[in-house]
Amino acid sequence: MEKQSQFENVLRCKWSSSVLMQIAAGIKQPGELLRSISGLTKKVLYQRLKKLERFEYIQRRLVTEKPLKVFYTLTTEGRKVVKILKMVKSL
Fold first, then answer.
1. Are 17 and 11 in contact, with CB atoms under 8 Å apart?
2. N or C, fewer C-beta in 10 Å, the chain?
3. Is the dihedral of CA 52, 16, 25, 66 positive or negative?
4. Domain boundaries in the chain?
């Protein structure tokens, strides 16, 4: 999928854009994301995280200490998308 189509896909999906915005705001773990986005289900969250990772907007990091922890951070492309989403939101 080309970059423009990927971006349009994220822009049209309220959950994908919400997840990106929350990660940009500093919420990094899946449980925190679920609690911070009203109405989002666990199943949809994991679908969106996989999609955003596939589009290379976020990066998944696994910490193998006990207990295992997963963190998500924005990539350079993800930061660009968030900047555009913020501009669109301000209109």
1. yes
2. C
3. negative
4. 3-89
Q: 58 pairs with which residues across the strands?
A: 74
Q: Indicate the CATH number for domain 3-89.
A: 1.10.10.10
pTM beyond cutoff 0.90: no
pLDDT of residue 13: 82
4: tokens are: 């423009």
Name every residue whose Cβ is closer than 8 Å to that of residue 56 and which is 6 or more positions away in sequence: 75, 77, 78
Two structure tokens written together for 82: 């968030």
Alpha-carbon gap, residue 15 to 75, rounded angstroms: 18
Q: In sequence order, what are the residues at sequence separation of 6 or more whose Cβ sits closer than 8 angstroms to the Cβ of residue 25?
A: none
| pLDDT tens track for 43-70 | 999 999 999 999 999 999 999 888 889 9
